[in-house]
UniProtKB/TrEMBL annotation:
The lineage of its organism: Bacteria, Pseudomonadati, Pseudomonadota, Alphaproteobacteria, Rickettsiales. Its EC number is 3.6.1.9. The record marks R17, T76, Q160 as: Important for substrate specificity. Its cofactor is a divalent metal cation. The keyword Transport does not apply. GO terms for molecular function: nucleoside triphosphate diphosphatase activity. This is dTTP/UTP pyrophosphatase. Pfam families: Maf. The gene is maf. It comes from Candidatus Wolbachia massiliensis.
Amino acid sequence: MKEQSLNNLILASSSERRVALLKQINVKPGLILSANIDETPLKKELPKDYSIRMAKSKAEKIQSSKPGYFVLGVDTVVACGRRILPKAENVEQAEKCIHLLSGRRHRVYTSVCLLTPDKSKQHIRTVVTIVKFKCLSEQEIKYYLASEEWKNRAGGCNIQGLAGMFVLFLRGSHSSVIGLPLHETYCLLSSYFNLNLY
């Protein structure tokens, strides 16, 4: 199989965190485009199913306007049990999420979808990571909320920032919790691209 140029890859996300994580494995997409899709969960939709649907929908939306490219769609979901936590858009939402996560385990699902240019293949990987937060005091919650690091973060969490100090343990992929599972993404992309790691 002929190796492709990374100029033929589109990242269907405007997340600076994902761009930085890709750079960590020597990947610089040719284009970075935001998909702007409806991210409302379906009734009774499970967190894993939702993350897969979102990753696929983002990739498909971009590929519909940019045929001929490989497209990488990614979605990260924070869940308590079967409950999908929202991307915190205001301090009230963030406070609800942080109170819910305080002192308990939660799961972070990140799905990666790679579409090939001829639409013949659709590769999907989902990584599940278990995270446990310490019991947070009201003072710690206020301090975190005041930082505004929760803005537009799934479950109001930013573990590479201040929320990192609340993590008692993490079982799974640290990079996946930030927004992109590096091992799985590397494996998917290296099937088609020369990633020049050496």
